[in-house]
Design goal:
Elements lengths: L2 H6 L7 H31 L4 H29 L5
Helix pairs in contact: 2-3
Length: 84
């Protein structure tokens, strides 16, 4: 289980500024992960990695991107007092 997801289950007990800071930190982390996975996929392809390795990296990148999309939608909702 991702510690961030566990922490978000308690977001109703955090101050708005704490939630916002956590979401912005997570956004930066996820952007780095998405970029890194894209780079790794290219490197693995260039060095002849088997298709299943590239598929796994693609899956990881898609999962990080899905989380990033959610965080980018959640930030304005927190700022507008719509979340939590």
């Amino acid at each position: 289980m991702d510690p961030f997801q566990v922490a978000m289950t308690f977001m109703d007990r955090l101050e708005k500024q704490q939630i916002s800071a956590a979401l912005h930190g997570r956004m930066a982390q996820l952007k780095m992960y998405v970029e890194t996975m894209g780079h790794l996929t290219g490197v693995k392809h260039a060095h002849g990695a088997p298709q299943h390795v590239k598929e796994n990296l693609g899956l990881q990148r898609a999962m990080f991107q899905a989380q990033l999309d959610w965080v980018e939608r959640a930030i304005p909702r927190v700022e507008a007092d719509q979340l939590p």
